[in-house]
Amino acid sequence: MALHTWWLFVVTVFFVSASPGPNMLHVMARSVELGVARSVAAMAGCFVAVLSLLTASALGLTALLLAIPGAFAVLRVLGAGYLIWLGYKAWTAEDAPIDIGEGEVSPQLSTWRIFRTAFVIGISNPKALLFAAAFLPQFIDASRPELPQFGVMVLTFGVIEISWYFVYALGGRSIASALTRPSLKTLFNRVTGGLFVAFGLAMLGSRT
Fold first, then answer.
1. Is 17 a domain residue?
2. What pLDDT band is residue 99 in, cutting at 50, 70 and 90?
3. How far is CA 40 from the centre of its chain?
4. Residue 136, helix vs strand vs coil
5. pLDDT, average across residues 168-195
6. How far apart are CA 2 and CA 158, in angstroms?
7. Overall domain count for the chain
8. Cα(49)–Cα(91) distance, integer angstroms
9. What's the average model confidence in pLDDT over 135-161?
10. How many beta carbons lie within 10 A of that of residue 202, not counting itself?
């Protein structure tokens, strides 16, 4: 991969990762709810999902899946349904204020459960799969070995993506103090739930 191609990849990924989507919204919400430290499990779940999609793209699995009639439509409906369900859960969540002291740790949520929920959010978005299938090949130099180029892109993508996870997590934690008021916590739940539902409906209405 030529240096100028890599820089173009860096700039593109920087802005793509920065844009708010289900992954970033989920990381921010987990940070508000659980604190930055415990939201790392959510970051890991989202990242492993993205890494899985990038690997599938490199192996040609996404192209194969998209070639199967109806497969992408099924994924789109399932992914949209899951996001809408998450939106409903957030909308109807308990309206108790955020405790930013020792009580911020929610013992009923295990690290595995936090990771698993984040992974499903990341992997259930067929738009991300389509993006991976169409995006990575644009930066591959066919005259050079593909595996090293893929490794460089995944490493670069990983650093940028995780950096933005922490930006969103810290941003979420910075507003947590305001959510000590029940009315604001209710508003936060409604906004978060509404955004997840909006993402789901947008995915459901998509035909690409």
1. no
2. very low
3. 13
4. helix
5. 74
6. 19
7. 1
8. 25
9. 80
10. 12
